[in-house]
Structure formats: structure tokens, C-alpha cells
Amino acid sequence: MDGNGERAQVVVLGGGISGLLAAWHLRQKGCDVVVWEAAEAPGGWAQTLPWPGPAGEPGWLERGPQGLLVGRGGALDRLLRALAIELRPSRPRGPRWLGKAGRRHPGPASLAGLLRAPGLGFGEKLRVLAEPFIPAGTGPDETLHAFFARRLGEGFARELLPALVAGVLAAPPERLGLEAAPRLKRLEAHGGLFLGGLRTGLERTRLPVGGTGALAQALALTLAERLGGVSTGRAARALEPLPDGRWRVHGEGLHVEAGAVILALPAAAAAALLRPFAPEAASELAAIPHLDLRLWHSRHPMVRGWERGLGLLVHPPEGRGLLGAVSFAADDPRGVPGLLQLRAYVGGAYPVDPALAAWPGVFRELRRWLPELGEAVQVREDACSGAFPLLEPGHGARVARVLEGLPQGLHWLGAARFGPGIPNLAEGVEAWAGALSMRGLT
Ligand SMILES: Cc1cc2nc3c(=O)[nH]c(=O)nc-3n(C[C@H](O)[C@H](O)[C@H](O)COP(=O)(O)OP(=O)(O)OC[C@H]3O[C@@H](n4cnc5c(N)ncnc54)[C@H](O)[C@@H]3O)c2cc1C
Predict the structure, then answer these.
(1) pLDDT bracket for residue 91 (50, 70, 90)
(2) Which of the two ends of the chain, N or C, has the fewest CB atoms closer than 10 A to its terminal CB?
């Protein structure tokens, strides 16, 4: 090994939540693991970044999730406990709205919202309430639209589902397979959405003290306790198989050799590294569509009644590209005292009206649904290029083909494999690590 080389049992490429989780589980098994992260900080999309207030006050924004959906006894719950991450007590939440038919209505995920839902006839509302009596019957290539139409009726799937799905997955339910929301199959297996929710335990949005980025920080910190840990500013450029069956990862002017390489990267980046050895797996990975989203962060004078935060989902045909908006509660330590901190989502799989390319257009669109919103005192736009994998019907079969095509010693993890949410990643990586023997790793 020359002066520019390192050795490890395992190298993880990508220091987002998937890569950090993989490294953490491997460390728990006593494995010597290093992480290479291309960016200057670990966390990938899950980072809490400083955004000082108008007078330079401390303040933050979230690059990705604003909160974590934690189910009691689930993989994410276990992880947060193992890392001793302190969670803020969940407080009563502020209003949740659906923007539809030109005005806002109560959020469709509540019973009140359902009973007053626009566009749903009386029979269609009764059909929603009949959900517990619908037998299980998920087909392998069922779309999210077909799943909800089967369980809650066509009316719900037509009138309410598009906004709910756009607000979480940024794409139309007709284009998404059930892999995009892995929990649904489990709920159906436990009696349906209502009964399954009760039986498997309700999930609640929780906030780690310090923001959702605290999860990545805690993982990186435990990894740094031993040699190796997370090396930032290190982008993997190429892989080279060695004659003894191990792998060499090449970076800028340095390399690392390991018995196993974990590709915890966006699918396109994993495909680029795999192409010379596994062209078929690489083509499958490269064919997974990824969506671009734009986030507008803004701070406004506080509005009475919105102190506990607000959530707005917009029926996509009416949003012209605005999918929704969400705000911090007034006592959220990430915000600036006295100001309402809003985040608006634009784009995803939906065409964006050119007027929404700049803040005045976004603000006008927001005011259609939130007329109380005052002029912004601060605005910031962030592009999330390729942030969301679009898991189409048939995605499960594609994942299986990728896994079959991976050469010995190479592994692939990430949102495009397990589903695009941190709870899915926690569960997927935990199951992956649990099924590994150290011999099976290389
Ligand atoms: C706006 C937004 C809102 C979201 N909201 C939620 C939410 O409310 N709830 C939820 O659960 N999830 C949410 N998500 C999704 C969640 O944040 C992601 O699914 C998750 O963070 C993905 O983690 P990952 O590690 O798989 O990928 P990434 O975070 O993409 O990490 C991959 C890492 O690999 C690094 N990398 C790339 N190329 C190389 C290379 N060649 N060498 C080394 N490193 C490389 C990248 O720099 C990156 O750090 C949201 C995401 C976004 C963008």
C-alpha cells in the first residue's frame, strides 16, 4: 500500500443517512469500516443548516425532512433510542389545510377533513368509512392510485389522494408503485389502513433537539469514536477489482482498499461506478427516475392562530407547480423568535408555471391559499436536484435485478432501494445488516 492508500474491512461510499446507518450497524457487529462522503459534511439531504435571522439572530433551516415520523417500536425508534437522541415533546399541531376548488379546507387526513372534503359525494364519504371491511389484495404492480381506490374508493383516490401524495412523494399516485410507501402493504396485512394503523402503532412526527440533522451528526460522532469514521470531501471516482477478490476505491489522489464496498449513493452515482463491472445492474439503476424539487424558505411576521405551525397541501391541478407549504411552530428553536418560518415545495413530477421560478410568483400563489401571510422579511431558494427517487410500479422487480447483478463484495443501499423516507431507510438498512454474516459481506 503506498502513502495515498488506506485499508479497511468495509468502505461505505456516501455519508447520507443510508451510508451512516450501514456503517453504524457494521460497527455494532465489530467491523472495521470507513465512510467516504463527497460533500464537506455528512448527512446528505438530512442536514439542519444555519440560516441566521434578519438581524443576524441564530436560526436554521432543514435541507430535507422538517421532522421524523417515528412509530413506537419501529426501526427508527430503536435507532433514536440507541443513539440517545433527545426528542422534543410532540405538541398539539396547528391547522392543516387542503387547497382545492379555489379555497382552503380542513386537512383531508382527519375525520373532520374527510367529512367536509370538497368534491366527494355522500356515498363516496361512506365508502371511505367502509375501509376496514375491504379484504387485502395487493397485486405486485399496483399503483398507489389503484391501492387507495380499492381500499378507500375512487372518489377519495380522485379528489384527495393527489394532494396527499404530492405533499409527501412529489409525484402523481398513478405513477408510483407501492414500494414508494412500503408501510401500506404492512397495514393492509394487519387489517387495512385504519385497523392496521391501530394494530401496528400510530406514527408521530418527532423532532430531535437540534433538528433532523442531529441524527446524521450523532451517527457520524459514534463512528468517529474509533479509527476510520467518516471522511468528508472524499468523492469516489472509480472502483477497481483486485486479484485477491478485494476492491480498490479511487478518489482524487488517494484510494482505499476493502473486502466489501457499500454503495450508499444516489442511484445515478452508484450506476456510474458500477458500469464497468456490472453493466446490466448499472442500466437498471440509471433507469430509476429521480425528481427535482425546489424549496422556498421564507420568514414572515407571525400570524395569529398559526403559532403551532401550519400545513398546506395543494390539489396538484390547481397548484401550477406549488405542491404545498409547512411552517415551524413559533417555539421551534430552529426558527427566529417572532417570525413565521415557512417552507414551500415547488415542482417534483409536476409541470411548474414559469411565474413560480421567482419569489414574487411563489408568494402570489401562496397568498391564494394563505391570504393572511404577510410580506416576507427573508427568502431563500434551494434546489433539490434528483432528491426524490420515483418508485414506479414494478420497482420491486427492478431492485431484485440490480441485486442479482451486483458483483461479489459490492452492495447497494439507499432511498431508491428501500423507499424515500428516513423510517424506510432505518428499517431497510437494519434488515440488510441483520441478514449479513461477516463472511457474506465480502
Ligand atoms: C426536501 C426534502 C424533504 C424531505 N422530507 C422528508 C420527510 O419529511 N421525511 C422523511 O422521512 N424523509 C424526507 N426526505 C427524504 C430523506 O431526506 C431522504 O430519503 C434521505 O435523506 C436519503 O438518504 P440517503 O443516504 O439514501 O441519500 P442522500 O441523502 O442523497 O446521501 C447520499 C450521499 O452520497 C454522497 N455522494 C454522492 N456521490 C458520491 C461519491 N461519488 N462519493 C462519495 N459520496 C458521494 C452525497 O454527497 C450524499 O451525502 C426529504 C428529502 C428532501 C430532499
Answers:
(1) low
(2) N
Is residue 359 included in any domain, yes or no? no
What is the CB < 6 Å shell around ligand 1? 13-19, 36-39, 44-46, 64-65, 235-236, 264-266, 269, 293, 295, 384, 387, 414-415, 420-423, 425
Q: Could you tell me which of 420, 421, 423, 433 has the C-alpha nearest to residue 71?
A: 423
Could you tell me where the beta strands, DSSP code E, fall in 310-393? 311-314, 322-327, 339-347, 378-389
Whole domain around residue 214: which residue ranges?
5-45+209-289+392-441
Q: State the Cα–Cα distance between residues 189 and 196, nearest whole angstrom.
A: 7
What average pLDDT does the segment 242-268 reach? 96
Domain-located, residue 73: no
| DSSP per-residue string spanning 185-227 | HHHHHTTSHHHHHHHH--EEEEEETT-THHHHHHHHHHHHTSS
CATH of the domain at 21: 3.50.50.60
Residue with more model confidence, 89 or 244: 244
Number of domains in the chain: 1
Assess if residue 11 is contained within a domain. yes
